[in-house]
């Protein structure tokens, strides 16, 4: 089986004929964002049936908003055309896999701990046709999670008392600096 792969990046821009003949387009989120904005006028965008996003755990990073727009736009296009689209997100271990799966419209169900023990390859009480969240023990490098919480009582007053001394201290230092420099500059005249 021969698969035609086309690279579409900031460095390489193939012509439309190559894109129309391709079976697979490898691109950056930013480049696909720019191209998919005009999806009504680009048949190769409307023909996409599968999107694979590598490192989807970076949603909270600099590229995150672009990834969010791409997923939302892909779902919108599929809805408008009445064609299904499959979105696959690849990631390292995730603490919020159910949230991400729900956002990607991945079918899964929560199960009891007893059921999880009998299901190979899944963990955290998650099973389904499309969600695979593997135990930390299958990672080549073990993952340690540390969570430190703070009580919610009196949050605003506590934060205000922690921020005020730093702000006041810097303000007083700055005021002293200005007044000393103005006094010394006055004597020089």
UniProtKB/TrEMBL annotation:
GO terms for molecular function: ATP binding; helicase activity; hydrolase activity; nucleic acid binding. Transmembrane segments: none annotated. Gene3D superfamilies: P-loop containing nucleotide triphosphate hydrolases. PROSITE patterns: HELICASE_ATP_BIND_1. Pfam families: DEAD. SUPFAM superfamilies: P-loop containing nucleoside triphosphate hydrolases. Residues 1-112 form the Helicase ATP-binding domain. Keywords: ATP-binding, Helicase, Hydrolase, Nucleotide-binding. GO terms for cellular component: nucleus. PANTHER family: ACTIVATING SIGNAL COINTEGRATOR 1 COMPLEX SUBUNIT 3 (PTHR47961:SF4), DNA POLYMERASE THETA, PUTATIVE (AFU_ORTHOLOGUE AFUA_1G05260)-RELATED (PTHR47961). This is Helicase ATP-binding domain-containing protein.
């Amino acid at each position: 089986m021969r698969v035609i792969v086309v690279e579409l990046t900031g460095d390489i821009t193939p012509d439309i004929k190559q894109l129309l003949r391709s079976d697979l387009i490898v691109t950056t989120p930013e480049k696909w964002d720019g191209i998919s904005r005009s999806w009504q006028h680009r048949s190769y965008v409307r023909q996409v049936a599968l999107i694979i996003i590598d490192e989807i755990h970076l949603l909270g990073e600099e590229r995150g908003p672009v990834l969010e727009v791409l997923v939302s736009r892909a779902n919108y296009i599929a809805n408008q055309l009445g064609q299904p689209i499959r979105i696959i997100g690849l990631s390292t271990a995730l603490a919020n896999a159910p949230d991400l799966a729900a956002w990607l419209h991945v079918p899964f169900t929560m199960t009891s701990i007893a059921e999880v023990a009998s299901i190979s390859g899944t963990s955290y009480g998650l099973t389904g046709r499309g969600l695979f969240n593997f135990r930390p023990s299958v990672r080549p490098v073990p993952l340690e999670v540390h969570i430190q919480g703070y009580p919610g009582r009196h949050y605003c007053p506590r934060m205000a008392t922690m921020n005020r001394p730093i702000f006041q201290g810097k303000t007083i230092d700055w005021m002293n600096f200005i007044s000393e420099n103005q006094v010394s500059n006055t004597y020089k005249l």
